């Protein structure tokens, strides 16, 4: 049966300045123009400070070939109050050495060693959902908690009791001020302008950084196990031989916490939503998991054999990319597809629209995991599907996230089935990540 799940419909006519700003605050996906779903390049008028880039060759130019001309100024402006100048929020040489220092922590083979942690998180979810008498569960909230436990247990096992609750609370507060922060960052408003929620956001950041600083002091005094924090503390800049100072350590720990749990939670959440509406794929996945894992707990050796599970995850991240938009700012004059781009202007990469582009996807809004069957996936262009970005700044946690999501989804499907609960359909809402507006409740039943 053909399933076309809820989507954002582009504005019928071009938006004026005020309408653009109002919609942007409400949901940045609602300002994505119709052309973003149909053209390779779009600008409201020649010379405008904002250009939308969707064509594969142009994306390659921005993200790979001419990346030194396109920096992440807006993202850095938006996130640096929280994440300082860590891996996600730095540029140039500063970025490069941090990327080199962090890369060894994400080797595929080592990541497979985390599968038991991922499966334990899924079992924790199942135990919570089994508790009578409720069968309707707030899936988005519970999954976010589970992926948070995973990131704590894999990256900083010694710390969860200390900073877990502070971190969770502060991130929620920061998130609530997100819509405004994004708008102000993109129009480069002066800092003194009043912004709803901004002082709560600032307080959350101070509390969060203080909690992590305390943890680092403790560690410096006493040593500790071989976790991410330890590895970051001993990492050295290959050129200068310098270690990370405390501020940079805090930046990166928070970066991994923040970038590493919410995104994966969104991917899982939208996937369960889609499965709840697709009995066929739900049954196919249930059969695959039974065939591959039998009655045993999902293990590292099963991951690559869970082919359909991964197909569904990929299709879910096509329709609902956890990071729905990226942007870059030109730091030098250049051209893109014959259009002059002035230094200081923004290039928006609307992943959400690119992955539903009429020229490159058949029946683009329909849920069809068969698009990612191995032989068909191999034929996809590198820049038409980019939930993890592309080029040298591609998500460093991509393999981590795929293994984690596969293991958790398979472990859930070994025991549970998901079906619709009463209430409105979830609607995609872009904050920093793509949320189901109003949360996601599903009926969970057990075999
Ligand atoms: C489904 C899950 C995930 C999605 C969809 C996702 C998506 C992305 C995207 C699109 C970018 C590129 C942003 C840009 O170029 O502007 C990115 C970067 C990044 N991600 Fe992920 N991510 C996921 C999971 C993770 C995990 C699990 C971690 C860490 C454990 C992580 C850590 C990072 C970091 C540190 C960067 C910055 C890399 C750099 O600039 O060198 N992500 N992610």
Q: Could you give a quick summary of the protein structure above?
A:
With 447 residues, the protein is α+β, with helices and mostly antiparallel strands.
Description:
The chain has 447 residues and is of the alpha+beta class. The protein has a single domain (17-446), classed as Cytochrome p450. Helices cover 50% and strands 10% of the residues. The protein contains 17 helices and 12 strands. The chain has helices at 17-26, 56-65, 73-83, 92-102, 108-112, 115-130, 139-155, 160-176, 178-187, 198-222, 228-234, 246-276, 279-293, 307-319, 351-354, 374-378, 398-415; strands at 41-42, 50-53, 70-71, 136-138, 326-330, 334-336, 339-341, 346-349, 416-420, 428-430, 434-436, 441-446. The strands form 4 sheets. The protein has a 5-stranded mixed beta sheet, sandwiched between helices. A 3-stranded antiparallel beta sheet has the order 4-12-9. A hairpin with a 3-residue loop joins strand 10 and strand 11 (434-436). Helix 8 runs antiparallel to helix 10 (198-222), helix 10 crosses helix 12 and helix 13 (279-293) packs across helix 17. The longest helix is centred in the middle third of the chain and has 31 residues, at 246-276. The chain is globular. The mean pLDDT is 89. Protoporphyrin IX containing FE (HEM) is lined by residues 72, 75, 87-88, 99, 255-256, 259-260, 263-264, 267, 322-323, 326, 387-389, 393, 395-397, 400-401.
